[in-house]
Task: inverse folding
């Protein structure tokens, strides 16, 4: 069982007499997780949270990453996100899995699905070109989770007219991810222009007094713009994931809608 739809289908089969309760119980027992020794793969992540487990590649061997990907693929998972994965590990995984690797973002999608929807509208904006690796991690994460993403790169406050020329794009977004290093001012400016949530991502880009992103982090945390939240330094994945949840919230069916859909 990889998602809520599969579980609902199984329960409806039991209700229709097409499967026994014992069969359903066995199927559900096999679902929660698989112990690979070095990892416990959580197959119920998508049931609880809407998206499959994401593999954090840093610190894992290529063999471990490949083993987790294989286990997830064997259970029907696709669009398997692998973050912070280097070229050597990606090349190893690609020997046994279909892999879409993005070296700039250090992110890969194993067994990418061609039927991934493109819902709503998320804008990912950066202060400068140097912020692109973190921004691409956010954008690619959101796209893999079924969102439409527009990239606005190099629109920092040092040339404010560049950002203001894209106001129509910003105003059409359901969520904006603002990625910036240095003093991190982009998030505050964007937060003062749009009527949707802004996710601020400080990056470790900048000279000595930026303290590897700490300066941008503190600036974003102290922003006077309402409706903005801040993730950790260089955490493009976290921003992309949260933006996806915000973007798709209106599309989530309520419990009452579930009940109505199950009735003949």
Result:
């Amino acid at each position: 069982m990889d998602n809520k739809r599969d579980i609902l289908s199984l329960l409806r089969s039991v209700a229709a007499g097409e499967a026994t309760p014992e069969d359903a119980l066995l199927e559900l027992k096999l679902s929660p997780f698989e112990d690979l020794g070095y990892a416990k793969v959580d197959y119920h992540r998508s049931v609880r949270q809407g998206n499959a487990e994401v593999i954090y590649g840093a610190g894992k061997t290529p063999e471990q990453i490949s083993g987790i990907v294989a286990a997830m693929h064997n259970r029907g998972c696709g669009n398997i996100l692998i973050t912070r994965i280097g070229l050597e590990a990606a090349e190893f995984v690609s020997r046994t899995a279909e892999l879409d690797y993005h070296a700039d973002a250090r992110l890969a999608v194993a067994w990418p699905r061609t039927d991934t929807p493109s819902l709503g509208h998320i804008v990912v904006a950066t202060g400068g070109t140097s912020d692109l690796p973190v921004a691409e991690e956010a954008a690619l994460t959101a796209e893999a989770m079924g969102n439409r993403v527009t990239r606005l790169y190099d629109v920092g406050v040092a040339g404010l007219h560049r950002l203001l020329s894209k106001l129509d794009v910003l105003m059409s977004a359901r969520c904006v991810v603002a990625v910036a290093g240095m003093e991190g001012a982009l998030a505050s400016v964007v937060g003062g222009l749009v009527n949707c949530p802004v996710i601020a991502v400080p990056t470790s880009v900048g000279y000595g007094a930026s303290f590897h992103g700490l300066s941008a982090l503190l600036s974003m945390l102290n922003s006077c713009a309402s409706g903005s939240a801040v993730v950790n330094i260089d955490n493009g994945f976290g921003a992309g994931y949260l933006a996806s949840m915000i973007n798709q919230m209106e599309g989530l069916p309520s419990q009452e809608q579930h009940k109505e859909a199950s009735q003949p």
In short: The domain at 119-248 is CATH 3.40.50.1970 (Rossmann fold). The chain is about 40% helix and 20% strand. The two ends are 24 Å apart (CA to CA). Confidence is low (pLDDT under 50) at residues 252-259.
